[in-house]
Amino acid sequence: MLFSSMTFVFMFLPIVCAAYLLARKELQNYILLIASVIFYAWGEPRYLAIMFLTILVNYVGANYISRSKNPLHRKLLLAVTIVADLSFLFYFKYFNFVMDNINAAFNANLTFIDVVMPIGISFYTFQALSYVVDVYRGEVQVQKDIYKLALYICLFPQLIAGPIVKYHDVAEQISDREVTFDKVAYGVKRFIIGLAKKMLIANTLGAVADKIFTQPVEQFDALTAWIGAIAYSFQLFYDFSGYSDMAIGLGAIFGFKFLENFNYPYISKSITEFWRRWHISLSTWFKEYLYIPLGGNRVSKARNYFNLFVVFLATGFWHGAAWNFIFWGLWHGMFIIIEKATGWHKKEGGAGLKITQHIYCIFAFVIGWVMFRADTMTYAWNYIKNMFGLVRNHKILYEYAYYIDNIEILAFIAAVLCAMPIFNKMLEIKYERKWLRAGVNIWLMILFILSASTIAASTYNPFIYFRF
Predict the structure, then answer these.
(1) Given this model, what pLDDT does residue 468 score?
(2) How many whole angstroms from its chain centre is CA 258?
(3) Measured between alpha carbons, how far is 419 from 412 in angstroms, rounded to an integer?
């Protein structure tokens, strides 16, 4: 089920909210758990068993870890649980990729069952890993109630596309949280903002990107290539940050406080800063559960660079079973290592240096998004060459104006403005400024009506990160 669907907005969510808010406190978790199972089963009923098995494996593994006093046994139990979690992820997400590459490398013709990846498996697997590692480290108490653990792993607001919620951040909230009018009001407003990002900006600019990226590279010029790359950069940001806004808003409605997942990443002046602002839940997950265990920056420079290489290789591979995602991860890792070696990300200066840093960062991540969007690295490489005028055999069918109309130009303008922290305090206007708050509320109502109208008129439009 999609957040951006009539079924969710006008049927599922009102029913769940009414049931939850009217129920006794001791029943609220069960209502959310049942709702989460229905939410997932709506589109993926055959893969419920995989999610349930993940819950059971981590429940049993963490309980055995907490009981054991032998350090070696604890490590062994942790390793077995982690291997089981990653085995599910590997089989459903990476098996086809590995077999295809074996066939290509050895000119073989091995036949196998084509595996279909369950929606959300990357997200709920990482949440399960967070829980069992937190228990092993002694950061949290083991969860004796399997229903509460199940709620943590499959809570529907962030089940399909994050943000990745680490167990130690919400352990207390699962057992005890408070629902207030202010939280519900904030959650509704945050949900509307996310819905508008998705429907009014991401989908509009996604149409531009799709028209360009589905054409052979030789059939459009450099300006069109840049329009496509920038359109996709904004589409991805507003699609994913829109989902995160909706998830955070839904969490607030039910009394949860999820950490922010985006902090205006497109204003960054380095790729290091970019990753402090982009997909924060994933970058902090890798920091806490991979980078620091590898030694982080408390090792030699060479080892530190290796650790960064491993983290960004894993980041690329986490996003998808394809070489373009791996190269995208390594592309970012390369800039992170260069910045760390040169101190570029720490350089301070006047306006000229800041502008130079910002332009450098934009070039780096926009080119990276081309790799992310392209179906193959060959197409990505040719597309990037085209962006810099290095494709000479143009057979241009349409000029750039064919790919973008007035509505899409307005979406570009909105995308640029909203990518900067201009309206970041909009939901925090104090009650004593009633006229301003009334203006914000009216504006949000308009956004909701426009978004709902767009939903009604559109076809199936899943979030980009569903595929990861």
Answers:
(1) 63
(2) 14
(3) 11
332 is catalytic: no
Res 45: pLDDT: 84
| HEC string for 349-391 | CCHHHHHHHHHHHHHHHHHHHHHHHCCCHHHHHHHHHHHCCCC
Domain shared by 149 and 204, yes or no: no
Residue 3 has pLDDT above 80, yes or no: yes
**pTM, rounded to two decimals:** 0.93
The residue from 176, 203, 231 where one domain ends is: 176
Active-site position among 279, 319, 332, 345: 319
Which pairs with CB-CB distance under 8 Å and at least 24 residues apart come from 390-398? 391/217, 391/218, 393/218, 394/218, 394/219, 394/220, 394/221, 395/218, 395/219, 396/219, 396/220, 396/221, 397/215, 397/219, 397/220, 398/219, 398/220
At 16 the pLDDT is: 95
Rounded to 5°, angle at Cα 179 from 176 and 182: 140
Binned at pLDDT 50, 70 and 90, residue 396 comes out as: confident
Per-residue pLDDT tens digits for 331-347 = 999 999 999 999 887 88
- Number of domains, the chain: 2
Domain range for 451: 183-467
Which amino acid type is present at position 100?
D
CA–CA gap between residue 392 and residue 288 (Å, rounded): 47
